[in-house]
Amino acid sequence: MSTLTLKLYPSWDTQKSPIPPRSRLYNLEPIGIGTPYVESLTSYVIRLAEQHCITTRRLLIKEIAPFMGREPKLSNLRNERNESIGKILGVNRDRTATNGTGLMATNLVRAMSILTKRTDLYFLTLRPWEKVLSKRDLLRHERVWCPSCYQEWRDTNKSIYEPLLWCINVVQICPIHHHPFLSVCPHCLNQQLVLSGDSQTGHCNKCGKWLGSYRYKSGGVNQMKKADEIAWQLYVNHELGELIASAPTIISPIDSNRISQTISNFINQAFQSNQAALSRAISVNQATIGSWCKGKVIPQIDKLLLLSHQMRIKLLDFLTTDILFFDNIACGSSTNQAEQPRKSYKRINSERKQVLNIVLQEVINEYPPPSLEDVAFRLKHYPLCLQNHFPELCQIIKVRHADYKSVSRQQKIQPILELALQEFPPPSFLEISRRLGYKNNSYLYRYFPELSRSISKRYQEYNNAIGKKKRELVCQEIQNVAQLLHSQGQKPTQRRVTQLLTKPGVMRNLWVRSYLREIRQSLGYD
Ligand SMILES: [Zn+2]
Ligand SMILES: [Zn+2]
Question: Count H helices, E strands: the chain?
Fold first, then answer.
């Protein structure tokens, strides 16, 4: 028997839910927020233009300008090309501040946020660090790029963009590929502005050609010779990368007073209140240090890095945390000496010494031979302490380990060199050395003379062959062009021939001009 029961249904809300306002431009997601490789604001503008299939100029003039408070002047801007962009941004040719800490970045962030309805564009600039980063020499004035990064992104179908890190002046090498940035287009030899009406990601602003390549790797490293220079650059990259990455997660307010406080504390603790000692340690004059301590001036970015390195704290902590005590202080000495642990000479009683002696004797017969650092770690002593008490045994341990390392390195290197001999096009010997992590090729030449010579020779021969082939092609073309002009009744002068060449630049070579002279003579001129 069924009983009739009434069911109660929830009432329907028949009101239409409000549709949130649409953004004028795509709500394009910025690349890499919260990572060291976050995109710069200028890069975002350029990418957005590309997404809308318009030029950066058009985006800036038509869409962004009205929100930058620049409307009234627009009517007479339409015809001016480069200058108009500068006027919209509120600067002349120096557009670097677009990614910086000042008003220009704020204005552009505001305009772009209105247009895209995004709230995170602030992190594409250095605005979050406005209070603690000095504007002086902070950003570079021209556009730079890492050709390997571009090429790699293209090869792996990733978006091409320009990281904010590339804009910072003190960052001089790519943190991924470790070679210096390029700032001159290899095709048209021009430098470029950070943002222009013709900006395109990964391409030259001037000639429009693709800027990515793996070719510039070895050429770049040559410019940066010293290992400590590279080590410093990697440190700079790391510290600034961390700073940029942490911007979205910073909670405590950033305050420039903290810097002067930290520096004063540091001088008091590490240098017994002696400003001159810090001045010597970081090579900055004392008056400047005085004005930092009084909070009159914020140290420039390069000096901030020197200081945080000297204090052995992270730059991020330096700028965001109240540091009252310094643990591993480098007391007035240069930073290299500070790497050594200080407690190395602690006393060892005679019993312990006997035990250690027996253990070290055992270690000498161990295979594979451990490093002195490993042994010291196992025995819970500092390497320097062991060395102090057992100089001979430690010497043997070090030599055995070094020999072992060099043999195993050789076993690893040989097959790589042999493979290089089969590579095509033949790599240069320097390139191979670099791949193996050597700064120059003397090590490889010493231990693998035969293979090294073969690799060099092969590269040389290949290059010669290529050069010869190119010359032949050039000669052939010159001959053809000269013949053509001759058959038209025109004298094949240098100017006429040059105009008809596919690569007119070759005429700059002496041998090309003298070849043309020969051809002319053979045709009965001169
Ligand atoms: Zn790179
Ligand atoms: Zn170019």
Answer: 21, 0
